[in-house]
Amino acid sequence: MCNLQDLFFDYVLAFAKIINVRDPYTWSHSKNVAAYSYMIGELLGLNEEEKFNLYLGALLHDIGKAGVPESILNKNGRLSADEWVVMKEHTTIGYSLLRDEVQFNERGITDVVLHHHERFDGKGYPHGLKGDQLLLAARIVAVADGFDAMTTNRSYRYARDKCEAARELLHNAGTQYDPVIAQVFADYILNSKPVIHAALSHSY
């Protein structure tokens, strides 16, 4: 018989798949970010409940893109300044979609959705929070999100090598990314390249 955690995971998974209908790339990206986030959680010594909630938050981090116009979401090329303003609204749209669900709030999932584009130096969005003002889960997902974005092919640029992306994380440690999280994850990538793909197969 399924336990409550299994049922909640199935609920989150069904919710997360909403974005796949409109943007298969974002769904694939979200699964990658969830796997990388879970890996970082293990490297940082988080307990099982913390890693479970982190995984779910990462899986849903871009759910707000379901409310972004398809002309912007699936544009074949870089976004204009005006389009970028609209795209950035996906954080608050996602928060609005989830905020009335008690479990999403208690597990920190809504915080991840709202704050995964904040920066460690306070220059991110939507609220300009910095450092420890951000929950650990949001800081972890920011690193995982940035890494997967850099290592994925897009219409306007080629993917970076994973080691190059890891070095970019280190370059931006303390500004864009939490320096401890960036260091721990980058060290893992740089020293474990042959097995990094195995992380992407992780699921509950």
Automatic annotation (TrEMBL):
Coiled coil: none annotated. Residues 26-150 form the HD domain. CDD domains: HDc. Pfam families: HD_5 (PF13487). Residues 4-201 form the HD-GYP domain. This is HD-GYP domain-containing protein. InterPro entries: HD/PDEase_dom (IPR003607), HD_domain (IPR006674), HD_GYP_dom (IPR037522), HDIG_dom (IPR006675). Gene3D superfamilies: Hypothetical protein af1432. PANTHER family: CYCLIC DI-GMP PHOSPHODIESTERASE PA4108 (PTHR43155:SF2), CYCLIC DI-GMP PHOSPHODIESTERASE PA4108-RELATED (PTHR43155). It comes from Paenibacillus abyssi.
